[in-house]
Amino acid sequence: MDLISENLLTILILLPAFGALAVLGHSLYWKDDGHLKWITLGFTVVAFLISLLLLTGTPGSNGFFFEKNIPWIQAIGTNYHVGVDGLSLWLVLLTTFIMPIAVLSSWHAVEKRPAAFYVFLLLLQSAMIGVFVSLDLLVFYLFFEASLVPMFFLIGIWGGENRIYATVKFFIFTAFGSLLMLVGIIALYYLHLEATGAGTFDLLTLLATLEAGKLTFAAPVGTLLFLAFAISFAIKVPVFPFHTWLPDAHTEAPTAGSVILAAVLLKMGTYGLMRFNFPLFPEASRELAPIFIVLAIIGIIYGALVAMVQPDMKRLVAYSSVAHMGFVILGMFSFTEWGMQGALYQMLNHGISTGALFLLVGFIYERRHTRAISEYGGISSVMPLYATFFVFTTMSSIGLPFLNGFVGEFLIMVGMWKSTILSVTDSANWNYIATMAAGTGVIFAAVYLLWMVQRIFFGKLTNEKNRGLKDLTYREIGLMVPLLFLMVYMGVYPKPFLERSRDTVVAIQERVMRQAGGTVDHDEHTAKAK
Amino acid sequence: MQLADPNVNLTIILPEIIIAVVGIVVMLYDCFFPKNRVLTGAVSLIGIGLAGAALAWIWSGTGNVPLTAWGGMVTHDNLRLGFTTVFLVVSALTILISTVWVEQEEVAAGEFHALLLFATFGMMLMAVGNDMVVIFLGLETLSIATYVMAGLRKGDLRSNESAMKYFVLGSLASAFLLYGIALIYGATGSTNITEIAARIADPNFPALLLVGGAMLIVGFGFKIAAVPFHVWTPDVYEGAPATITGFMATGPKAAAFASFTRVFVIGFPFIAGAEAAGYLHQAWISVLAVIAILTMTVGNVAAIMQNNVKRMLAFSSISHAGYTLVGLIGAGFAATTAARDEAVAAVAFYMLTYAVTTLGAFAIITLLAQRNDRRAEFNDFNGIGTHSPVLAFTMALFMLSLLGMPLTAGFIGKVLVFRPALEAGNTLLTVVVVAAVINTAISAYYYLRLIVVMFFKERTTSWTAPQIPAAVTAAIIITVLGVFYLGIFGNGLIEKFSRSVTVAEAQVK
């Protein structure tokens, strides 16, 4: 047992990779594709169960648990350093939770080369978990890039008609961003070398040196480094105007790919900002916060407006992602506990709700092979259960009270409202204006999502082809139930989630706001709860 | 006149001797018993293995081998170790890969193997030589062997054209180089690198040195195919047999880099307080910085437009020369000897990663392209991911390594060569690194394109999976393992390459 708990994160990273080997070996040796999905499902479920052990961890003195730090390539000065804290814990669990669902969602959909499909899916999982637990900048970069390749193939081989364009665009956008980050990472190494006489890629060492005041960034350097990291993450999120790869990638990806893309891959961007940008470059974070807040608001409104006019269901959901991730960015850059906790919470919500929406779109696509909204209408009469689930998920995505989306958006809005980051002088009340502008996004979300629901499900059944549609199968119901359960649970009782992440988030917030002379604003209620 | 002690020492050049002797043996054997392909190949491989063992033995320090010998004309330092390893790996892989081509087209294998060994001998001289004359001898030995190899496909017009072009332009480059050596001798009174390094600090700095240095840049620029001296590369690479193209893109290029590094980084160092030497240093760094940016950009942009995979790899090799130059410039800027050794090791390591990856790619091209390299267009790779998934995924791996994806050799190589340039904290060098990074992103397009056609396009023409001879299978397995080994466990090798001479010496005592 000790062996497991000591190496828990390594096991979590390697288990899916071994799963990939198992799938490969099985398909090469027996030349039988029937069992592959069961093997994949088995590995993802076991990974999920093991990942639940993470909840038993207690943070060490530096806030991390299940930490592991061993030298890797000493010539470069990089260590294999992993650990989880309140920030990454939920994202790792989200990853392991969503993977079995993604596997099940493609149960019958993958006819072309299933072995390769499952291999890439499992490799993707390894890379994603690696991203969330790496505490060494170079190792993080490595997993960040490695997650790109499986997704590139997933979209490129099993995607829709326009898949090649979409996947190459996806790859080049993200690769370009992450290469800039690589320059930033290497530059940090040398700045640390100059300041202390020893270069390092270790995040915690860098933070400690910064904390001790031994390493400071001269005026443009801090901002440039911030940008090197932030642009890479902004592309991944995606923040307007870097979002153009997302609708293409989402639309062309197979259902499992879309679900993972929405649920986990986008979160790497927001996670990276919180994990690296804020603690490493607090001054630059404060300085550039207004720009990111403006971009976030543009993203919220623009994403919503464009979503409204999409004729394709999947594209509509994709644009809604742009809007939702705008909220996350807004909350993070408010630099209040409410806002940042809300942002983290909204990351999870978006993963669950949007993931569910992509699943639902996938279900109907498998039946009718079209995603055009105009092809449907009035299908609630033939697929009542499907309609119920869809409406429910839509409500969660809109942010109806007592469902998860509400909690996140509410926290973000309160956080922005109370934020001091925009107050250049005492008289200016930009934070109120920003909150109100973002608030319109909630209304827009209701408009585009409800309008889509109305056009698909209600009214008369006009298209004869839809008359024979079968309602959800047991497999599909089984897929949706855990998601629906979480939507309610997280909407009614967010406390366990927020409590676990609180310390980490507050530490980041304090770090950013401390030297600003700005007030460090704690939410008294949760402080008491603690 | 006093005669210097030539301190003859055979052990220091033992690897070179082994390769030369085996080369002669193979050539003579082929005269009397021609067309014994397997045997000459095996003997060559054994020779390369012995040379590698000799190199390892010298480096282990047990043989008490001096650091320099032959009147300072040869030296064994980390530069020599790193690059010689590259050459031996390249030659061994080339022999393995060539079997399919040699069989299919009935090449005179004995000649080919002998030439390859002579070329290897030339390359090794270029790395071990600490005197411009030795370097030039090595270069000529290498070049003449390579000119012939490019034209080995006698019946093919393109191969003839390739050999002719390579010969004419290569001779031109050699002339430049020789002229540069002469001018530098005129300026410093020596052809010995160590002597030159000591003499450039002289305040009576002759402008001749600058002109000589410029000539050397032109000469070496030709050999590494740096822009604007690159125009011969695509035609020569496309026309030569794929195996030879793979060799030319990796071996001679690495050899030129070895000498380039030796002459500029070690011969023209920055000397604190010496104004004249500082001027020379600044001049060559700036010129090479511009050349590096041009090389990467032109190579990449041109590679995007190619429809032939061999040609694409030719342009990609140009851009890789650019990345390597970034490491060379960084080495030139290193503040301490230890930092310089590390940067030199980075250049050698980069060439090793590039060689392993590129040779793997050429092995697969040789397999797929069939006789006379007829099928080397992008279209010919359409949809083979479905029909020969193992080959296609291997090729994809090589492409990702060339692109520099993490966990592959290419990534570690790139990080290593970019690092010293960033360490300098010099604005110009930072610009160079940023340009290199942007270029890496550009290169994603054409490397991915091959993956795209292999996996995402449907095959319209018929496909018969190629027969893979055992030797090529071995080469592919070695390169695949090499890509992962260098990418994940490269640590030990990098440390060996960057171990400075003084450390090796200390271990002897």
Provide an overview of this structure:
The complex is a heterodimer of chains A (530) and B (509). Chain A has 530 residues and is mainly α. Chain A has a domain at 283-530. Chain A has 21 helices and two strands. A two-stranded antiparallel sheet of chain A has the order 1-2. The longest helix of chain A has 34 residues, at 163-196. The two termini of chain A are 30 Å apart. The model of chain A is unreliable at 516-530 (pLDDT under 50). The model of chain B is unreliable at 502-509 (pLDDT under 50). Chain B has a two-stranded antiparallel sheet. Chain B has one domain (11-508). Chain B has 509 residues and is mainly alpha-helical. In chain B, 75% of the residues lie in helices and 1% in strands. The interface between A and B is large, with 37 and 38 residues.
What's the number of helices of chain A? Answer: 21
- Going across the major beta sheet of chain B, what is the strand order? 1-2
Can you tell me the residue ranges of chain B where pLDDT is under 50 for at least 5 consecutive residues? 502-509
Work out the strand percent of chain B. under 5%
The count of domains of chain B is 1
Query: Biggest interface pair, residues each?
Result: A-B, 37 and 38 residues
The strands making up the biggest β-sheet of chain A line up spatially as 1-2
* Biggest β-sheet strands, sense, barrel of chain B: 2 strands, antiparallel
Shape of chain B: globular
Oligomer classification: heterodimer
How is this structure best summarized?
Chain A is mainly alpha-helical and 530 residues long. Chain A is 72% helix and 3% strand. In chain A, strands 1-2 form a two-stranded antiparallel sheet.
